[in-house]
Fold these 3 entries.
Entry 1:
Amino acid sequence: MLMMPLVAPATEPAVVTVQPPAGLLFHPKQEAPASVISLNDSLLSLELSGVIADLAVEVGQMVHKGTALLHLDPWTYRSQLQQAQATVEELQSRWQLAQRQQERASQLHKSGHVSSEQFDQRATELHSLSAQIKQQRTLLQAAQDRLDHTVLKAPFTGLITERIGQLGSYVAPGSPLLRLTDIEQVELTASIRPDQGHRFDASWQGQFELEGNSYPVRLRALLAIRDVSSRTQEVRLRFTGSLKPAPGATGRLVWSHPKPHLPAWILSRRDGNLGILLARGGQAFFYPLPQAVEGQPTPLEQLPDDPVILSGRESLQSGSPIQLESTR
C-alpha cells in the first residue's frame, strides 16, 4: 500500500482589529487631598491692659480694614495724656521766661553790667529747658499713642470667626480678644506623593474639585520638606478664577499627567515581559515596554510606526500570521 507523506496543516491567520497608537493615548488623571487655607488668620490683641468698654462685633460678621472692633476704657490713658500735655505747657512757659531773661542778660552783658558767668548761666538755663521740652513732647506723643491703642482696629478685611474677649472683662497686654479670618486672600494646600512632585512646574495647571464645582489653580510653591509619617510633600497653589472657596473647605486636587499613556487593558505579557502587540507585515510583533506595570497606564515615550492590535491578540506571539480588520 502506497503511503502519502504527512503535511502539517497551514496555520490560519488570526483576524484582529487594529488602531494607530496615537488614538489610544490619553493623559491619566492624578489627584491628591487638598484644603483651602486663609493667608491671614489672626488672633487680635492689644498692647495695653484695661477693661473692655465696648465690643461692637459678633462672630460671623464681615468687617473692613480699619474698622473699630473693640474699645478699652480710656480714662487712665486719657489722664496720662492730659498730664503730659500740662507738663509741656508748663515747660514752654518757663522757656519763654528764660528766653526773655537771656535776651536782657545779653544786652546787659554788652554794656558791661552783667558778667560773662551770669550771661552763660542764662544761656545754659534756656538750653536745658529746650531739652526738657523736647523730651516731654516725646512723652506726650507716647501718651497719645497709648490712648489711640485703646481701640482695636481690623488690620485687614475679613470675617470675625471667634470672640474671646467679653464686655466688662479686664484684659492684659497681648491677650487674644478676637479672631479675624481673611476669606478673600486664600490659597490651596495639597499633599502629594513623591512620585508626583517632579511634574509640578511653572506651566502646571490643575483643578480643585469641591462638591461638584471645579476651581482652576496654578502652582505657587512646592515645599522641599517631606512629611516623615505620611511620606508626602506639600504643595501650595493659587486660585486663578474670580470665584474662590471659603477657608476650611476640603476636596481633591485633580490634574492630568503631562505625558501621554497607553491604557492598562492594552498591555500583554510575553516571556515575562509587558508590552503591546503590533501589526507588522501580516504578522504580530511584540513591542516590549520596560517601564510598564501590571494593571496601570503606561507612559509611551516614543510612538511605534505600526498599528496596535486590539482584539484577537490573546494567543498571538511574535511572528504569528494575522489578518487585519480595521475598526469602525
Entry 2:
Amino acid sequence: MKRLLNCTSSEMASMTKEELKQSIMACEGRVIMTETVVAVQPLLGDLTNAELAVSFGSDMILLNVFDCDNPKINGLPETDEPVKLLKKLVGRPVGCNLEPIDEEAELMESRREISHGRHATKETFIKAKELGFDFICLTGNPGTGVSNASIEKAIKLAKEYFGGMIIAGKMHSSGIDEPLVDLPSIERFIDAGADIILMPAVYTVPGLSEQTVMEACQLIKSKGALSLSSIGTSQEGSDEDTIRMIALTNKRCGIDIQHIGDAGWCGIALPENIMALSIAIRGKRWTYHTIASSVNR
C-alpha cells in the first residue's frame, strides 16, 4: 500500500476504506483535510471551494452544510451526481458532515435548527453512500446540540448503513458543556466502529493541553484508529504564524490528519493558511507535489 502522499488521483479513487485508512497512517502525520461550506457562493465564484483547497495543498475534502436530501455544491455545473463530479474534479477523497443531534441535551446557547438532510440518520447514511462519499464526519456545527452520547449512537448506525470511513468527535462544544477530549468516550467511539477520532487542535479551545491530546493520540493508536485535529474555531482565518504553531504542536502530539475549517472567507479557510499548514508539517517539496499533481494521473 502506497502512502497517500505518493498516490495519484486514480490510485486514491480505487482505494477501499481499509486501504485509504492504511495509506493515511503510512504518511506519519502529513495529511491535510480542508473543510468547505457548499451552501454559499464560492470564493472564486465559478470554481468550487474544494478545487481551490486542493490547489493549495489539501489531500482530503470535507463538505459542510451539505444536505443529503437536496444535494447541491455551489460552484459546480448542473449535474445529477454532484459528489461524483466533485471527486472527479479534485481527484481526492471527499466526505461530508452529518450531525447527530441530541434533542434532550441542555444547551449553553439557543439551539440552531438544521434541515433533516444534515442530520445523522439511517436515511442520510444510505443517501451518503449512494452519492459516493468516501467518508462521513459525525460532529456538530456551533449551537446544533451534538453530544458525545449522540455521536456514539450515530457511529453504530453509520457502521451498519454507510460502509465508508467514519470520523467521529467534536471540534468545539456544539452548544453542550461537556469534555471535548474524553478518553472513555474515545474508547466507546472506536469500539462502536469509528475509524478516525476527531479532536479540537491544541490552541483552538480553552484549556485543552498538549498532554491531553498526546494521551488521546496514544490511546487511539493503540486501538488501531487514526486521530484528526481540527481548527474549527475561525482561526482558519488567522495569521500564518498562528497556523504554523498549531500545526507543529499537534504533529508533536501524534495527530495523523490535520483539519482546517471553513471560516475564512466565503466558506473556506484563507488559502494561504492551507498552504502554511501543509508546509509546516511536510515541507515545500510535498506541498508542491500535491499542488502540481494532475487529477488525470
Entry 3:
Amino acid sequence: MDFSGWQKLTLVDFDKHMATTLFTAGCDFRCPFCHNRDLVLNPSEAPVIPWDEIVSYLKKRKGILDGVVITGGEPTLMPDLADKLRDIKALGYAIKLDTNGSRPQVLKSLLEAHLVDYVAMDIKNSAEKYAETIGLPKVDMDAIRESISIIMKEAPDYEFRTTIFSELHNEESIRGIGELIHGAKRLFLQRYIDSEHCIQGGFHEVEKEKATAFADLLRNDVEQVSLRGYL
C-alpha cells in the first residue's frame, strides 16, 4: 500500500522536530469535520507516491530533517505500515504516528517493536457522543479505551487531542472526555476551522473563552491541557 499525500516540510506537526508528513488514504471513521475528505471518502482515487521516491528524499534530507509524521486517513489500516516504519527508522528518523485508536493491536505491535516515538490519538468526544461525532451509527468503545490504555502505558511520548465545535461539545461531553483519558499526561483542545475540504463542514467553532473553561474542567483528569489553534 502506498502513501497518497506528502507535505515535504513541516515545523508544526511534530514538536521540536523539523519533519516531513506522509498521508495514507482510507479511514474507518467518517468524522464530518475531517479536513481530508478526498483521502477518507475516495481512497481508490487518491494519488500514489512511490515508496522509493520517499526513501530517496529521506536519505537526501538526513541531517536537515529529523522527523517523519505518519497521518491519514487512518495509518493503522495500511497493511505494510510496520515495514515502512522500519525503513524510516533505519535512516535514523524519529516517527510520530497519528491515529484514531480504532486498531489497538496494531498500535501495540508498533510500540512493542519500537517503531514509533510519539503517538497522537484523537479523542473525538465522550463515550455517549462518540459514534455521532465520528459519523457512524456505532463505535467499538472497547477498542478506543484499549488504545488509550496502551498509549498511556507504552508510548515513549504521546498526546491526546480533541477538535471541539459547538454542535457536539459541551460541559457534559468534555467531562466525559476527561473520564476516558483520566490520568493522561497531555491533551490539546483544537479549534475547529470550517473548510470546503471538510467531509461535511458547516459547524461552528467554540469561542476561546468557552474553550478555556473546557480546559479548566479537564485539569482534574489530565496533567497538561492546552488550547491549539487559538490566538
